[in-house]
Amino acid sequence: MNFDFSDEQKQMRDEARKFLAEKCPPKAVRAVLDGNASYDKDLWKGLAEMGFLGVAIPEEFGGAGAGHLELCVIAEEMGRALAPVPFSSTVYLAAEAILLAGSAAQKKKWLPAIASGEAIGTLALFEGKGNPSPEAIKLAASGGMLNGVKKPVPDGAIADFAVVAARTGSTGRDSDISLFLVDLKAGGVEARALTNLDPSRGQAELTFRNCKAEPLGAAGEGWSVLSQVFDRAAVLMAFEQVGGADRALEMGRDYALDRIAFGRPIGSFQAVKHMLADMYVSATLARSNCYYGAWALSTNASELPEAAAAARISATQAFQHCAKNNIQVHGGMGFTWEFDCHMYYRRANATALGLGSLSYWEDQLIDRMRKRNAA
Amino acid sequence: MNFDDTPQEAAFRAEARAWIAANAPKQYEDELKKSSLGRTALKGANILEVAKVWQKKKADAGWACLHWPKEYGGRGATPIERVIWQQEEGPFGRLSGIFIIGHGMCGPTMMAFAGEEEKKKYLPPLASGEKVWCQLFSEPAGGSDVAGLRTRAERNGDDWIINGQKIWTSGAHYSDYGILLTRTDPNVAKHKGLTMFFLDMKSPGVEIKPIKQANGASDFNEVYFTDVKIPDSQRLGAVNDGWNVSLTTLMNERMSIGAGVSTGFPELFEFCNSLMLDDGPAIEDRNVRSKLAHWAVKASGLKYTSMRAISALSKGQRPGPENSIGKLVAGSMIQDVAAYALDLQGAAGALVGAEDAEATGKFQAMLLRAPGTRVEGGTDEIMRNIIAERVLGLPGDIRVDKDVPFNKIPTRGRG
């Protein structure tokens, strides 16, 4: 049994960690958080040069042609560093949708541009409150034109193109939904940045008015493709969350070792120790669930839907738990803008929502377990 | 990343599987499968006898205590082979319950500290299950704080005379031998005046009283010692070095990685899958699903954590510290899971074995056993301390009794 990443993959993780430690220190995250930039352009360029943006994109489309396991280890480091770049929307959502459903021409057009850092992509799915569901998609597509409003769209204000989920039928079935590719710079779309819980990552509203769009994949297959994209993105996002959880745990541990109160390091008090031990437990459970998700993703196993949901739930819980208690360990200083704790707290709670909330994934997991049980 | 055996592992697995298929007591398989939680019992058979027969059979064919050296009754197998064996043994491994302490703790301690003659004499029958061993550490005044124990051992020529009381001794009532931690010098700090022995449990002056537990069962005992004589040749380690000897024992108290821990989740999922609530199937209720998902990811997290440990073994590495979370997570989870299964049945959840209360017996048994799980072999709090100190590197607690002679340590909290 070898339920672990290979030495080469671990080496790639180390490289990514080193690169991000240098190019993405907390002050780089703060620059975006404070509104000085919409994302870190230098970091984005650097990630492209390192080959990280196209790590899972085949070589014929300008990528490194490595695979999803390699993408998982990079995702973990992106989460650990709170990288303020449109990585998840471009790489987990847009690129994966094109890889799954794109025509040869579409792949040729967009994938090399993603890998080189020239194109930022996103997925425009949500239309206001609610979790992913075909019923919630009202934005209409007819005659190659899109009309409607999408929000929130991750990184929508800085994206060059979007995969858009649109309604092409009204039978009440999943086949009412089709996907489209939209060049956001070509007109017909108005983007408005939205303030959000974690300003180190952007959210936007996209308004489509007779916007020209080309189909991505077969008509009526949109929901089926989206479900697959979401499962893949759930695993990848879970790795980001585990990276963030681990870092929050380390910050708490380090502070507990250094901070003296009542004449001793606060980490010698059981109340603090036990809080940190519980953070370690949730981060460990999440990491193990993520590894299973990574295995299912990299082998395209039939277990992927269930493994993805478990990884997503476990990692969401762990990141929220570790980020929350990291502040608690830091006491009053943890509640200041100056300390970095709140950046992890914000990211933990924002990433918990972005791909569908915890309650959505809980529901999905039980559905999927029932299906397997019945099979 | 894969879950595949190496060719050597696959060959070993095939050999183990074939032997088990040909030799295991299959008439008990169904009952053993159902007995994963709470007590293992067999209807119409004495489980102790069935377990001993199975263990002897394994020993005769070279499948007992796989990781022990051959000369002491083992197989000299690698850690990963031991895990594979446990996976293949499956429900029949539950018959090994009575041997866990002997094989997991007493045997390794004997191997490290007994003389060669004693090892050759005592270890093979321990491996083969002909002799059962227990571990006599905990006392009424020394639970989590084991070094606070008071059972005295006093030198008398070539012998030691033991007086005192042990408690929470699993299986003392069917054990042939035990390892015993005693106080030999009360005038020095508590960790520095302890000495370890092994003894015949049938020695004159040993009195065993079963403890009736909160769940009505009796897995543990009190063991009283009145002028019990132990020859000095049965001392393990140096006089007053018993604490270091006991650390060897406790280090060997490893979670059995291959067998996995029970969480109660599969039982709850199955139960919710068939339970009808007033407004429809339980499994379609949002609250039920949310709870199930919460526990599902803990159960799968534990499962894949142990897969990571097995992978490390497979590569010839030591498993990382992540495995230490198993008992901590599973203990309180099983308690919560059981309470929830009863909650779903409303007032009828309190009934035992009534026809209108589904599966209450199973979940009530889990509910009533779980508090013990959270205490035995290291309380939840001790487990958290271990994670905090050994994994996260946080400082140990400040010990106010560290340099105080044992007989000057206060014995009462008030007055």
Q: Tell me the β content of chain B.
A: 5-15%
> How many strands in all of chain A?
10
Helix content of chain A: 40-55%
The overall average pLDDT of chain B, rounded, is: 90
What is the number of E strands of chain B? 10
Stretches of chain A where pLDDT is under 50 for at least 5 consecutive residues are none
Quickly give the structural class of chain A.
Answer: alpha+beta
What are the key terms here?
A: 375 residues, B: 415 residues, 4-stranded antiparallel sheet, 10 strands, globular
Kindly describe this structure.
The complex is a heterodimer of chains A (375) and B (415). With 375 residues, chain A is of the alpha+beta class. Chain A has 11 helices and 10 strands. A 4-stranded mixed beta sheet of chain A has the order 1-4-5-8. In chain A, strand 6 and strand 7 form a beta hairpin. Chain A is globular. The mean pLDDT of chain A is 97. Helices cover 40% and strands 13% of the residues of chain B. Chain B has 12 helices and 10 strands. Chain B is globular, with a radius of gyration of 23 Å. The model of chain B has no long low-confidence stretch (mean pLDDT 90). At the A-B interface, helix 7, strand 10, helix 8, helix 9 and helix 11 of A face helix 9 and helix 12 of B.
